[in-house]
Specification:
With 475 residues, this protein is of the alpha/beta class. 34% of the residues lie in helices and 17% in strands. It has helices spanning 6-10, 22-25, 38-45, 55-59, 66-74, 78-86, 92-98, 120-134, 157-168, 185-188, 197-208, 226-231, 263-271, 298-309, 330-338, 407-411, 441-444, 449-474, and strands spanning 18-19, 33-35, 149-153, 172-176, 213-215, 237-240, 246-247, 260-262, 290-294, 314-319, 342-345, 347-354, 360-373, 379-383, 389-392, 395-398, 402-403, 436-438.
């Protein structure tokens, strides 16, 4: 119980988590942030104003009861706190690390109106890590097992969340993953220094503990089609959550040169295939002394910070707008700057230059200025005449967005898609094909982990309603 008066709580400064020093962390892939210890967590929890109408809950895409879980921390009931989170979010150790709380729950925190908001994300991570360290996890009780089977295509945050929610309802759930390991973007996209693989593995094991079956190396659209999941495998519903793994390029000269990567390929080779541990793992990746990453989102930050850890002495982040328009998390931007990444803002590449061996040796760029807002609401970057300049680099990594792989769409007759290749779904994640639901980056084109989880949670409820209504009609 928090005995402090609101006026006393407001005087407590926001607790800062300890981190590896920048000079140390650019030489390893260990987690940058150490999180809170118990004393830090109790201090930070005591800042919560316990609002009668907690806006933080409304700011959370999956509606975690934030007020209550923080109260439980104040009472030192850490396991009850993590279980309170898990009622709404089955992956607390992951969300506590990678969710952009500063743009969601913390953004609307009442304390944040005049002071710094409560560090909700760090508190979520604390109780999740406490549970891991104490080995106190207990599988939620499942009241009744159902006969109906649901297929989940893709094991990223949307797929894992949907699987967990349906398994808790008693359905027989099977996940089909195209790659050889589970996790989707959580494994191949997010580096170890932000999300340790051991944490992801624990969260996956907890989903398996619910009775969820997982098939890896199983490509829906090739190994089996969506229609075959219904007709041959006997599934009652299918949730498509295959993400957005097809990278975008700028279509400028030189993008086919050796040394040019998409961020998808670069991060997959490093994160999933452990290229940074060559020759222990036989997937080398060549990184020069000077590397340019193009983009301003979290993927761009992950790529440029990874390049620094792979030995790049100069790592440039080229972004065509200003810092205030960057979609990346503020924390990731700050970490990149601390690690020596050089930001070239209001700058856009025009050409990649190669040598006689077709290897990258430089990138030509043009300076930009901001004009009127475009369809995204951000001011449109406009080239400044005669502002070209050249940077010596040996690698260029494109991190300017991605689209879904078209295999599912091309092998599922009648499935409605948008021009950009995303699968169209309504507010309940239902597609135009009966029994087929979709969510995450497959429908959004590229968004945050927590929004993908929100889609998985919404889809699980819609799938449950769909199956139960169908059963009633059969009576």
């Amino acid at each position: 119980m928090n005995t402090l008066k609101p006026s006393e709580r407001m005087k407590i400064p926001r607790t800062k988590a300890k981190e590896q020093s920048p000079s140390e962390r650019i030489r390893n892939f260990n987690e940058v942030c150490f999180g809170f210890d118990e004393e830090m967590a109790l201090t930070e929890a005591s800042r919560c104003l316990e609002c009668k109408d907690p806006l933080c809950i409304k700011g959370c895409p999956v509606n975690i009861d934030i007020k209550r879980f923080i109260q439980l921390i104040t009472d030192k009931k850490y396991l009850e706190a993590v279980n309170k989170i898990r009622e709404a979010n089955y992956l607390p150790a992951i969300c506590g690390r990678v969710c952009p709380q500063e743009e969601q729950c913390e953004k609307v925190c009442i304390l944040g109106k005049k002071h710094e908001p409560v560090a909700i994300g760090k508190l979520e991570r604390f109780v999740a890590d406490y549970e891991i360290k104490t080995g106190a996890f207990e599988v939620p009780s499942i009241n009744s097992r159902k006969n109906e089977k649901v297929a989940i295509v893709g094991s990223g945050p949307a797929g894992l969340t949907c699987a967990a929610e349906l398994a808790k309802m008693g359905y027989q759930v099977t996940i089909f993953e195209a790659l050889h390991e589970v996790g989707g973007v959580l494994r191949y996209g997010i580096p170890e220094f932000r999300l340790p693989r051991g944490i992801l593995d624990i969260e996956v094991q907890r989903i398996k503990a619910l009775g969820v079956q997982i098939y890896t190396n199983f490509l829906i659209g090739r190994t089996a089609t969506v229609d075959e999941l219904f007709d041959s495998w006997g599934f009652s519903a299918v949730f498509l959550a295959t993400g957005a793994g097809t990278p975008h390029f700028m279509n400028i000269p030189g993008e086919n040169l050796n040394g040019v990567y998409s961020a998808n390929e670069f991060l997959t080779r490093v994160n999933l295939m452990k290229a940074y541990r060559f020759p222990e793992y036989d997937t080398p990746i060549k990184v020069g002394k000077e590397v340019a990453v193009v983009g301003g989102g979290n993927t761009a930050m992950d790529a440029v910070r990874t390049a620094r850890r792979l030995g790049a002495e100069k790592a440039y982040l080229i972004y065509r707008r200003s810092r205030s328009e960057m979609p990346a998390r503020a924390e990731e931007i700050e970490h990149a700057e601390e690690e020596g990444v050089e930001f070239l803002l209001l700058t856009n590449p025009t050409k990649i230059i190669g040598n006689e061996k077709n290897e990258v040796i430089a990138i030509e760029c043009k300076k930009m200025e901001l004009g009127e807002p475009d369809s995204s609401g951000r001011r449109r970057p406009i080239p400044i005449p005669n502002s070209e300049f050249t940077l010596e680099v040996q690698n260029v990594i494109m991190a300017i967005g991605q689209s879904p792989n078209p295999i599912i769409q091309s092998t599922t007759p009648g499935l409605q898609t948008a021009k950009n290749g995303t699968v169209m779904a309504d507010d309940s994640q239902k597609t135009n094909r009966e029994g087929v639901f979709a969510g995450g980056d497959l429908t959004r084109g590229g968004a945050t982990v927590i929004l993908a989880m929100r889609d998985g949670k919404v889809a699980a409820k819609a799938i449950h309603d769909y199956i139960q209504n169908k059963l009633k009609k059969q009576l």
